[in-house]
Fold this protein.
Amino acid sequence: MARRKAQPQAPRKRPGPGGGVGAGDVAKRSSWIWAGVGLLGMGLCLLLAGILALPGPGTDNRPAALRVRAETAAQAGRWEEAQALWKRVNQAPGATADSYRAEARASLGLGRAGQAEAALVKASELDPTRPDPWLMRLEIARMEDRPLEALAISQAAWAVVPPASHRAIAQAVTLALLAGTPEELARETLTRWIHADPADLDARAALERIRILNTEPSDPPLDVRISQLEELLSRHPEHTGLREALLLSLAEQGNYERGRTVLEAWPETGKDARYERLAGRWDLDYNEQPALAVDHFRNALRDLPFDWKTHYRLARALQAIGQTEAARRAAVELGRIRERLDPTRLGRQLEETLGRLDEPASRRSLAELCASVGLDQLAEFWRNDTGRPAAPESVDPLMKDRPFRLPSVTPARR
């Protein structure tokens, strides 16, 4: 057998100086390793970002979670946090009368009565049958001595709340019209409200009316207060409460010409009983036009029949135009109303009757009181109220969880 020739073999490559692999292979392997490290790092970053994005107890912005946080803050008395959270709840879809009522409660906890009232209006719009927002608005109007607003609120509530809540509305508006707050408490509360919310114009006007009736040494000088009211009114010319307070202040100062200009600029759509009283006062005392004053005073008394000061000025105006018999009748009416609204007598009567509303005699006494001062609708209600207990689902008219409370009975300031 012939032997096969050995095939020549290619010479083996000698390893390079760095080892058994070439430099190109090392670079290629390193690039793959670093790419893997980079992808792994990116994945870890994404995972961490996802974990951080998960809503925690204080970062969940869903309405349901915000409600829980708001309720917790309110229960702890953290009103600033509670108000901010309830505002966020109410700015989102799904706001309810309950959530607006809760916002109002937090606002009152901070002393921001104007913001509370705005939230209560929204609550009444969403569920007008619930009595408690109406009742809370009546208490704010009572603190700020706003009888016209109290009448409007009660009439609107009367038309929509269940009959079982009518007595609570009647009780609240009776207090708002005939029982005020002690001056010291009113000053303290209104000052706190203004400090908490300088934009609360109703509170500012109410405090100025108190100062006009009884100036204290600690009050700013009258000219300073007038300048402040003029500046506010220039920015809010539609606010009739400010305009009324400014006119009363100008009359106190004796600046009748400036007052006439402010009166003539009264917005046409806002000419209510406050305008009629002041227009009549200017016509009677400063314009020497008592006949026009008679018309203004009678217009005012249609809405505020219990305003004894307007009865007094009406009697003067009638006497000035020679209507002696009419002036005598107006004076008699004035005396009767002042007697019925005498602070010592009124406070005792309201305390006795409102504390025993289940007794027919108490309701008759309230009916007679309201009828004697021209509050015919209230008189009719108290006269016809059967005294049936409120339905179990009706809301406590005193709203026990509200963060400020008025005394039950005190004579009205006016």
User: Anything to note?
Assistant: The chain has 20 helices and no strands. The chain has a mean pLDDT of 85. The radius of gyration is 37 Å.
